[in-house]
Amino acid sequence: MKACEFNERALIARIAKLLAKPGNGTIVGAGEDDCAVLDIGGEDYLLVTTDMLHRKTDFPHQMSGWQIGWMSVAVNLSDLASKGARPVGVVMAMGIPPDTELEFIEEIVEGMDECAGRFGTQVIGGDTDSHDELTMAGTALGLVKKELLIRRSGAKISDLVCVTGHLGTAGAALFALDKKIPVGQGILKALFEPMPRIDEGIALVGSCSVTSMMDISDGLALSLHDLGKASSVGFKVYEDRLPVLPDVRKLFKGRELLEAVVFTGGDFELLFTVSPDKIDIAREACPLTVIGEVIGGGVFLEKEGGLEELEARGYEHFG
Q: Which domains does the chain have, with CATH numbers?
């Protein structure tokens, strides 16, 4: 079989199965969660995550070198945010086409540096080589108190489903670029310069109100399915509660708006569940929107016309 015959999650599961071996006690978690969790002794777990981005599939041609650098760090920090971890360093490898202008490479590095600095860390090393296509491979390291570690697997029936920020902004930007529709810089910035929710993640796990959490960079629907699989639960979310910017609602309507908000990736927000009796504590930790509830099984969207089952569709490589 060829890689293209799998979707990304099926391929990851197959690889994880091949790598699964009895551990020595230092690896606490890996596989389908956002980060590997390592016990290095002391009060903290060390979290490790990696992401690889390519010019053709991940960076719209309108992006500047600075924005490419920023995004390359941001995608990794977003995984740490989903665990409530404090970043302690980023390692970046760059595959650079030989005809790339030096000034463009310097812009990329400046964007990397500014993103890392914005969230209290720095680029601590990496590698460069010659490559046919600009390729950015990053690894981020973070620390979280052992008693505060949150996984995807803790959601319980009757918990409330919550998100940070707004949904569909990056998706709307993608659609607008594809259709050559004029769009404001604020919407484009959500796509080109995503803001990983590091502060919000740290505050949420510190509040001890969250039962499960992940980021939704691959899209809300696909993330709900991932969270549901890990926790062996389902979800019902309400269309009229999804937080969408007014400017996005002006750009798209109906099914196209739903595609941007629910199925299209690029929003670096947090998706998490909270016990109903702790929702006020979670609200004190950071701004949030309650969009639904945890149910026994399936993933559904409640619309004006009734329930619609949400397929597991979003941003994926392969498949």
A: 3-147 (3.30.1330.10), 150-309 (3.90.650.10)
